[in-house]
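Lecture notes, unit on protein representations.

Consider one protein chain, 434 amino acids long.
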Amino acid sequence: MRKNKTIPVISLFSGAMGLDLGLEQAGFEVVLAVECDAQAVATIKLNRPDLAVINRRIEEVTTAEILSMAGLKSGDEFVVSGGPSCQSFSTAGQRRSLGDPRGGLFRHFVRVVREAQPKFFIMENVKGMLSAAITHRPLNERGSGFPDLKPEEELGSAFRVITQELRLLNYYIVFDVLNAANYGTPQCRERILFIGSRDGKVIQMPQPTHAEEPSGNLQRWVPLKSVIGRFRGSNPPGIKLRSNDERYLRLIPEGGNWRDLPPEIQKQAMGGAFDSWGGRSGFFRRLSWNRPSPALTTQPNSKATLLCHPIELRPLSLREYARIQQFPDDWKFAGSIVSTYRQIGNAVPVGLGTALGRAILDAWNKRNGKKPLRVVETHNHSLLLKMSARPITILNPPTMRKTKGKNDTDAWNQAKNRKRTDVMQYSAIPQNPI
């Protein structure tokens, strides 16, 4: 039975329901979950036994079935929410993007919105969606001696396709990259969010409530210790460290990483990664009590993205993971330890979901002001500047290229500094041209 005066939500790619819990805290009611992962479905049923669930791949589910199961009709007043699988847009791995079937799942999200015509929708994904290419070209195949980049190999080409398809929905859509730590979550986790209004309602992304260096009414970021500091004890449920990592982590102070190892053993500890490039801050990383956690991964003992407890010699436990993502303490997770880390690590922090829900409610209740449809834009000028300055490709450092000289790569790399004129189409503030 639906609660009185609550706005229904159809949840796609529901996972462990982090985003859904946040939306419910803002006053919505999830009436249907669509999720194909058997262990995530078991988690949903453990906690919400009366919630309607479609346990199939979204490619196999029609919008008519979704609406029927939710007890809704196309064009009713409801919200569609979800985060299409994001691995193919992540900055880790091969970044196959739209060439990966998982990257194309956003098209099924778009299909459901187009056919169901909700009053609002919210879609979230990893920040890497902004810069992903449609087709990934390996780094060692870029530069002098290789063919020029094709348009679909340029950084940002996937985002252009995504926004083109979103415009065809005939909604007014805003997007931004939000850091969950700015909304009271004990985790620095950046996600790209899209909110769409069928009726052209004026949408503003939620205003931050917290900051690293607070001023005015902003509070300081929530430190890790405040949410997991009391979870101590021997052998808490969770994954173990890799045996070879323990001897090095013993030498790492709270808040440190591989750079805090004695110089004479850094190369031995890092192996081949020692000569690679990038910050590599996740190697042999101990967290800090006084700062939020870095973005939780699906595997906290992974070599490059280690999430070691601030003072104990172990990765973060499952209970600590759930606390950092702001799941209620009585929320149960089904499945193996590996699956539970994956479910929690893939979730949207509950507090961020709550902030987004309140932003939708603010727009929902606005009586005045209409925005043009078929528009996808951001109000974040700093984000536009970053998008404008982004190169269209990245090359290996000279020491790692097959061709060592600089001059012989200049001609191939001329396009790197080409003006990004297409960024202006996303600007909601044309009086400040980029």
